[in-house]
Amino acid sequence: MTLAELAERLKATLDGDGSVEILGVQGLEEAAPTDLTFLANPRYAALARTTKAGAILVTPEFPSLATPTLRLANPYLAFAQALAIFHQPPVYPPGIHPTAVIDSTARIAADAHIGAYAVIGREVEIGPGAVILPHVVIYDRAKIGAHFFAHAHAVVRESCELGDHVTLENGVIVGADGFGFARDEQGRWQKIPQTGPVRIGSHVDIQANACVDRSSVGSTVIGDGTKIDNLVQVGHGSRVGSHTMLCAQVGLAGSSVVGSSAILAGQAGVAGHCELGDSVILTAQSGVSHDVPAGKMISGSPAFDNRLWLRAVSLFQRLPELARRLSALEKRMEAAAINREPANHSNGGAE
């Protein structure tokens, strides 16, 4: 594909030779003369002048380069779109592997691809365009929309509901029992039945080994367009809004509420029954045990306002020095106090 053709497909402004042949996409340092690359972070601007790439995706205001450029407002998004153009994913033709076990009451679109040893239970409904790879298990009465893609060993438990264009990576479990136990008079833990399903919207991606638990009552809900990374735990009865991102090892305790367009960075944790508003950002390893208003960025454990946290961290690094200075100051003040004490003169008792 020529660079001019690629510019048209990406709706980018071409600056340079449009006849350059582009065969793939790579990073700035790895790119060859037939590759497209991108620059979204100004920290790497110097690499744009040394890259061997055939063309670079940049913002409209980026300085001119000898290398041809495609200019648009969001180079990173355009890079993702270019990857989709050049990457050829595996093709899974319609058909059912002879080792798959499918209950006779299941209703599955005729164009589905169902891999080896997949198991699909009673009264399951799966829409058109599904790809179900080996060892996937769909429990009874699950309802799944169009263009479902389940990688090997993903599990959808009983009565859960998934929208269209949902992707489950390897080892995902949707609808496992929530962690609900009540202590009896003898101090023993009694399991609370987890009767509520998980309801997942459309265009949701759940990465490897993440778990979204079912609830004791009501539902656990994931909104449209939300992305859930590897090893995330969504506790029973939690509700996550649309287009939110839960990064690796995030943990939501039971009945957590997270708004739309929020970002919870790696290893952030939310205590049960807390509510985070729309567009909240929790930075990595933050621990939240209180409600957070919409639009706030917070950090730390216990978490508080990010700007104040940055100042606190800066001071924390200086604590040893400040402790030494305080100790020296106390000693000087003690010495000064001793020097100011009046002399204790005695007249031997004579009057």
| CATH topology category name of the largest domain | UDP N-Acetylglucosamine Acyltransferase, domain 1
Rg of Cα set: 30 Å
Tell me about the biggest sheet?
12 strands, mixed
Strand order of the largest sheet: 6-9-12-15-18-23-26-29-32-35-37-38
Number of helices, where a helix is a run of at least 4 consecutive DSSP H or I residues:
4
The number of domains:
3
Query: Which homologous superfamily in CATH is the superfamily of the largest domain?
Result: Hexapeptide repeat proteins
State the secondary-structure class: alpha/beta
Quick one: CATH class of the largest domain? Mainly Beta
Strand element count: 38
User: What's the N-to-C terminus distance?
Assistant: 115 Å
Instruction: Specify the CATH architecture of the largest domain.
Output: 3 Solenoid
Shape: flat
The low-confidence parts are: none
State the oligomer. single chain
How much of the polypeptide forms β-strand, as a percent range?
25-35%
